[in-house]
Backbone:
């Protein structure tokens, strides 16, 4: 009987430890997503962000061409 109570306490402590580890992982992931990512919506929408960056690069290269002609 004592062994059954001891094993039950071990299982309960293991579940509590697992709960603490999972809550730590979730909090760390949320911190990384919302605080360390500069624009956190870009983490979900990578396609349009890359497309807008390439479009800005094209317009920047077009604007620099007349400056080269002035020299």
Residues:
């Amino acid at each position: 009987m004592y062994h059954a109570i001891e094993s039950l306490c071990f299982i309960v402590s293991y579940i509590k430890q697992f709960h603490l580890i999972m809550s730590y992982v979730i909090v760390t992931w949320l911190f990384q997503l919302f605080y360390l990512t500069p624009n956190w919506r870009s983490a979900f929408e990578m396609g349009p962000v890359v497309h807008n960056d390439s479009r800005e690069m094209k317009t920047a290269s077009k604007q620099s061409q007349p400056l080269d002609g002035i020299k």
